[in-house]
Amino acid sequence: MKQIDVCLTPDLLHLHTIDNTIVVVADVFRATSCMVTAFAYGVGSIIPVATVDECRALQQRGYLAAAERNAQTVEGFDLDNSPFSYMDERLEGTDIAMTTTNGTLAITRSRSAVKVLVGSFLNLDAIARYLRTQTYDVMVLCAGWKGRVNLEDTLFAGALAHRLRDDYAMHEDSVLLAHRLYCDGKDNLVSYLANASHLRRLQRLGIQKDIAYCLQHDLYDVVPVLRGGSLVKMEV
Amino acid sequence: MKQIDVCLTPDLLHLHTIDNTIVVVADVFRATSCMVTAFAYGVGSIIPVATVDECRALQQRGYLAAAERNAQTVEGFDLDNSPFSYMDERLEGTDIAMTTTNGTLAITRSRSAVKVLVGSFLNLDAIARYLRTQTYDVMVLCAGWKGRVNLEDTLFAGALAHRLRDDYAMHEDSVLLAHRLYCDGKDNLVSYLANASHLRRLQRLGIQKDIAYCLQHDLYDVVPVLRGGSLVKMEV
């Protein structure tokens, strides 16, 4: 039977062998939720880059620049890290260069995997359906917060494990833990996350609307995949 | 208000500042459960060492040698990693040199903390009562399994957070996660842990009796503390 595992933060990636595995990167608040929304609205590609400077350089070459540092927008950039910014018809067919505190790094660090997919609650069902057609093991890489484990990405990992529970075995404690947490919290994720540290961080910024949006399940039938250095929408 | 935090594995210790914090190390299956049992039965001191060779060298200097590697006993040593081995009147007043796959390393890596305590379900109440008298923040360091997160140590961290919830704030997601898991599983920890990876590892070795024992709460009024390079029983 195929296996599903979870890496709770990129700082534990050294414990995992991913070269025969499909990696699903999750940065629920808010990088991967933004990416999924962007592709649902027709964006052509997203290049994840490590630094604000790289992003700015690509902006000068015609990319739209999107950045977030410490949950804040970067001045002079075209897009921020709110998923609502990506609900814009003018983005159709554009190419975006994006850097975020946690999510983009997690994607670039997964490059050696068979495939790197971008996951969020918004495209949970699309990801699960795609994975069922594949023969490889799966690992969810939670982006976390500056190396630390966070609740929301762990809950996403648990949600995916839950959807795949008839097709994938859960052998490792990380995935068991994530799955138990999701089952415990799934009936009301907003209140389950009420005390989460990143949620408190975001609430200080007044973006409760983003939080509620990012926790909606199965909104978009979109599977972003890393091809070369760019994320594109997979044709499924 | 004082804070309680959790480091889910020693491989995430670099994210934590511990020099103004009391660290409680937990390796529930079975190193810290053995240590607590040993002190309850009158052992004088336990030196945690990193390697089997160091342990053997101390054995030649008169220490009792205790070791476990990959959940197995080491040949020629006086004690193994079953807590039942430590229920022996002949151990009273003896000094033990101990090395285990995860637990002893977690202890030695915490040396820079204000105090390093040894925690297990067996002395949960004693640890909680002692901490309430202290002014420092607390961090539970879960020993995990070769760098990976494990369920049983995470549950212990959640149990301690639960006992201390009126005295310590839980700000970080790691402690929130551990606390939620413990609340979810506390009514039947044995069945909650039934699929845990280390439990399966131990069950293959036929030591279900150890597991049930290590999950008992509040058996001993013992707080082992690191002084210099040795663990001793704290006089409280």
TrEMBL record, chains A, B:
The keyword Ribonucleoprotein does not apply. Its cofactor is Mg(2+). Keywords: Hydrolase, Magnesium. InterPro entries: ComB-like, ComB-like_sf. Its EC number is 3.1.3.71. It is an enzyme of class 3 (hydrolase). It catalyses: (2R)-O-phospho-3-sulfolactate + H2O = (2R)-3-sulfolactate + phosphate. It holds the Pfam family 2-ph_phosp. The keyword Hydrolase applies. Belongs to the ComB family. This is Probable 2-phosphosulfolactate phosphatase. It comes from Fibrella forsythiae.
